[in-house]
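quick one, two chains, predict together pls
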Amino acid sequence: AQSVTQLDSQVPVFEEAPVELRCNYSSSVSVYLFWYVQYPNQGLQLLLKYLSGSTLVESINGFEAEFNKSQTSFHLRKPSVHISDTAEYFCAVAYKGGNKLTFGTGTQLKVEL
Amino acid sequence: GAGVSQSPSNKVTEKGKDVELRCDPISGHTALYWYRQSLGQGLEFLIYFQGNSAPDKSGLPSDRFSAERTGGSVSTLTIQRTQQEDSAVYLCASSTERTGGGPTRETQYFGPGTRLLVL
């Protein structure tokens, strides 16, 4: 069965500092990878996804994630965070052709002044 | 356009009672998912509907849980004889499905969730 590990439950960081949220998955077969974000008092929304092609994917608000097949990782990074990035971030994986996403337990990113 | 809506937003019930949770997906979305988010846990897949195909019920935790989708649109998740461990946020999501590659490559659009508390 697939599993997703987000080792850090909370990541505090100062504004304008870089951040990396880690995600590792268990599957060795072809997968799709996603990061979803949940801002305070809002629903989950897609941040970015890897389907195929370039292993580096970017979001419109400056986040990027790199698919590393050998390390089965899909870490999320941002070179300079803002207060508005405070949210919970969920990594998810799906088999190609499958029916469901398997989510990690989430990482709470708290950006401080 | 309108997003995924869920009702009620909050539900408090007594142990042993039945509850019904409703999801109204985005118009035109053929795929519909239910997830459960318990405190300190990730999102747990419950069930998946796609058009007129038989649903994938592999994530339902017990036979007390059931779901239906009428007319390929609105879905209802029913929990019978609720237990305290059923307390969680129940999330619904919908997506399109392109031909080939399966539904999971498509972005899932989530509703705001129903927060269920079983006393």
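The interface with chain A takes residues 3-4, 33, 35, 40-45, 48, 50, 56, 58-59, 91, 93, 101-105, 107-113 of chain B (CB under 8 Å).
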